[in-house]
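Regression test case RT-17, inverse folding.

Input:
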């Protein structure tokens, strides 16, 4: 079988496995495939709610990217290499999101980074080789931090097994030391300040590689933050630092996206800003919101990268539309965006009230950001020239429902 098709088949299988495991968690809090190794380290996989959600997300992204690549890479060289590297990356990411212990997570972290660096050099051009080496060096920094954190955790924490972290007492000093090292790994992996310069360089990679990188692998901050949340939660200093670093990253990423002239460079800089938002959510003590952000951004950014090749054609099509249709869309669209936000606010109000009462005012931030996002998205969607009134109304209703469902999903996740 063609390696790319094999990657797609593996991804589809993993998605259905994750779905089945998720259903089985109604009867047991977790499923384990592991044995206890030296020093009490769990060697194998642990499937809880978080791991099954992340595994389904990873599998679906791999399926989307490989399905696109089957046609996109037709007639090109080194396609088998791409397929084998996607298989390796899929296996590594499975270990990353479902590793039974921090050492297993670190193995998946390092292996997926190596696969990514090799994928960036898909075309084997001089510029691609330079970009691949840069990515490898930056991810090596991340590897040093995460393995230092793992060693420190084995020395100062009662256990490194994920299923036992939440129930073990963690001292402030020990948790802060380990959390700081894991945060360093997250900063390097997700392109946060001050290690943000490597992410725009990945624009050299072909669109399927860029989509896979920006949808999955770059989300390391959210993944490690959620998987090791008991450690981060016990270190307020680290959480405060993540808020500051995330906010700085948002500002720099947003500014960079506005000054880049190339489409893929703009998208890469946008990812930097989005990783900053996700990190701020972690710092505020909202890991569920960070995971929801990770998944939503992953799917959206994969779609944007896979359609980046048609940006010029779409720009010409928009420029050819009549001024009258543009004027009508611009006059109505802001009101529809506001209506969608109003619908969403009404639907999410009960869940938002409960979240704020349990977690404090910071729990309102994801809901407010969701309303703002829906307002902007509906405004942009209904500005499309020639859109029918029924379609615009449907987009408005769907946007409001999506905002409400998002807040209820967060409330349900935090209640688990």
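Golden output:
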């Amino acid at each position: 079988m063609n390696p790319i098709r094999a990657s797609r088949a593996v991804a589809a299988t993993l998605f259905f496995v994750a779905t089945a495991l998720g259903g089985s968690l109604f009867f047991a809090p977790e499923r384990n495939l592991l044995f206890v190794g030296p020093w009490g380290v769990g060697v194998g996989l642990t499937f809880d709610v978080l791991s099954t959600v992340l595994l389904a997300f990873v599998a679906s992204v791999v399926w989307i990217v490989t399905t696109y690549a089957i046609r996109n890479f037709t007639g090109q060289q080194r396609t088998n290499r791409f397929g084998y590297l996607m298989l390796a990356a899929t296996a590594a990411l499975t270990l990353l999101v479902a590793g039974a212990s921090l050492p297993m997570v670190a193995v998946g972290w390092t292996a997926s980074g190596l696969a990514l660096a090799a994928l960036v050099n898909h075309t084997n051009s001089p510029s691609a080789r330079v970009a691949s080496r840069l990515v490898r060096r930056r991810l090596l920094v991340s590897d040093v931090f995460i393995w230092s954190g793992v060693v420190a955790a084995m020395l100062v924490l009662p256990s490194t097994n994920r299923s036992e972290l939440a129930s073990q007492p963690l001292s402030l000093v020990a948790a802060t030391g380990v959390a700081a090292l894991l945060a360093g790994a997250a900063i390097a992996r997700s392109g946060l300040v001050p290690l943000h310069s490597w992410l725009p360089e990945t624009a050299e990679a072909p669109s399927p590689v860029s989509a896979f990188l920006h949808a999955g692998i770059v989300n390391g901050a959210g993944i490690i933050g959620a998987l090791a949340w008991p450690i981060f939660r016990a270190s307020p200093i680290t959480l405060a630092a993540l808020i500051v670093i995330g906010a700085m990253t948002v500002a720099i990423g947003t500014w960079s996206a506005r000054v880049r002239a190339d489409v893929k460079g703009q998208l890469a800089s946008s990812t930097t800003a989005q990783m900053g938002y996700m990190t701020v959510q972690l710092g505020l003590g909202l890991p569920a919101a960070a995971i929801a952000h990770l998944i939503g951004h992953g799917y959206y950014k994969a779609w944007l990268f896979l359609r980046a090749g048609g940006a010029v054609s779409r720009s010409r099509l928009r420029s050819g539309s009549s001024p009258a249709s543009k004027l009508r869309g611009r006059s109505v669209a802001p009101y529809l965006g506001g209506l969608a936000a109003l619908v969403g606010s009404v639907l999410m109000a009960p869940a938002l009230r409960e979240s704020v009462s349990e977690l404090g005012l910071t729990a309102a931030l994801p809901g407010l950001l969701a309303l703002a996002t829906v307002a902007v998205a509906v405004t942009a969607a209904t500005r499309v020239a020639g859109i029918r009134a029924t379609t615009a109304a449907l987009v408005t209703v769907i946007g409001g429902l999506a905002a409400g469902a998002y807040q209820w999903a967060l409330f349900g996740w935090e209640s688990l």
